[in-house]
Design a protein that fits this description.
alpha+beta; 6-stranded mixed beta sheet; 3-stranded antiparallel beta sheet; 9 helices; globular
């Protein structure tokens, strides 16, 4: 073949070219198969939304720590069944409040009332707190009296496992208690409910008839001026409950009227009259002793104590209205009990 002439490509040449090309394709496939897979980028976890808790108020549990004197044991759970709000009591200790900067003694009570809540009429025990600003405890005694109990008892509150104890605000509970200067004292009771089953019925009932006792020697007791006696006579028919006024009522006429009304049998007439006379004598004697005790107390009282009694005021706090509690605005009352009388201010 002459130089520069083109040679016709043979089939053999084609086969050799194809054979040479095959290893190159295999190498690419091998490279692709052995190449490590690409790692996926990690997904950042979203941060959880922070949870916010409302801080407890400094005196938020104050009203719950105060023993509700005179409340039936089986009703206590119902008292705390509502989320009552006593922020008005808490605010009273703040600057500008009626209790700010004062030593205060607090006791609780409950008042059964029929109220409407969410279109339902409910009989509930409404809690109330009485505040007594005073440099000394208003009393260390408890009165026990009811219609069913013929005799009134005035006993040391410790006999009923009650006492004034300091209340520690939330912000001070990490401090040493003995180093705190206590300003708030609450009436507390250490009687455990679980131990009630071991008590006699009369002892349990005493708690229901308890009333915080208070005696102001500068104010003559209404009972000292009263000429009425409460009569509970064990008649054959049924017990007779009545009031006899030894100045306004004539005993013979009073007794005959009870017989006419079938409250008293004829054969018990004389016994009833003697019973009433004895009660009148007891009441007059008690009134004389009360007047003498008041006179003696005034003579022995220090000037500081006299000044404290002269400015003594009682404040009665009810829960404030919230969507979670019944409206009690129409059932608030200034009356505290037979010993304290009426509150100077209802809040």
């Amino acid at each position: 073949m002459r130089k520069g002439a083109k040679r016709k490509r043979s089939q053999k040449d084609n086969n050799e070219d194809e054979a040479a090309a095959v290893p190159a394709q295999d190498n690419r496939k091998t490279t692709e198969l052995t190449k490590p897979p690409t790692r996926a980028k990690p997904v950042k976890a979203s941060k959880p939304e922070p949870e916010y808790y409302e801080d407890k108020r400094n005196l938020e549990d104050l009203w719950k720590d105060i023993f509700p004197v005179g409340t039936e044991w089986d009703q206590l759970d119902k008292v705390y069944g509502f989320n009552w709000n006593f922020s008005n009591l808490e605010n009273a200790f703040e600057e500008g409040g009626v209790l700010h900067g004062k030593k205060v003694y607090l006791f609780g009570c409950t008042e059964p009332q029929l109220v409407t809540f969410k279109d339902d009429s409910l009989l509930i025990h409404i809690p109330a707190v009485v505040a007594v600003p005073s440099p000394f405890p208003p009393s260390d005694k408890i009165g026990i009296k009811s219609v069913q109990r013929e005799v009134e008892e005035i006993i040391p509150m410790k006999q009923m496992k009650m006492d004034w104890v300091p209340y520690i605000p939330l912000e001070n509970r990490e401090s040493q208690v003995d180093r705190l200067r206590h300003q708030i004292f609450i009436l507390s009771c250490t009687q455990r409910r679980a131990a009630l089953k071991h008590l006699k019925i009369d002892r349990i009932k005493k708690y229901e008839y308890c009333l915080p006792y208070f005696y102001n020697p500068f104010k003559e007791d209404d009972l000292e001026q009263s000429t009425e006696v409460q009569i509970i006579f064990p008649s054959e028919l049924k017990p007779i409950f009545c009031e006899f006024d030894w100045e306004l009522d004539e005993l013979e006429e009073f007794t005959d009227k009870l017989i006419q009304e079938d409250e008293l049998s004829e054969d018990q007439k004389d016994a009833f009259k003697e019973f009433v006379k004895e009660k009148v004598r007891e009441t007059k004697k008690a009134n004389r002793e009360a007047r003498e005790a008041r006179r003696k107390a005034l003579e022995e009282m220090s000037e500081e104590t006299k000044r404290a009694f002269e400015v003594l005021r009682f404040y009665k706090f009810y829960p404030v209205q919230t969507p979670d509690t019944p409206d009690i605005s129409n059932v608030k009352a200034s009356f505290i009990n037979r010993y304290y009388g009426k509150a100077h201010e209802v809040l």
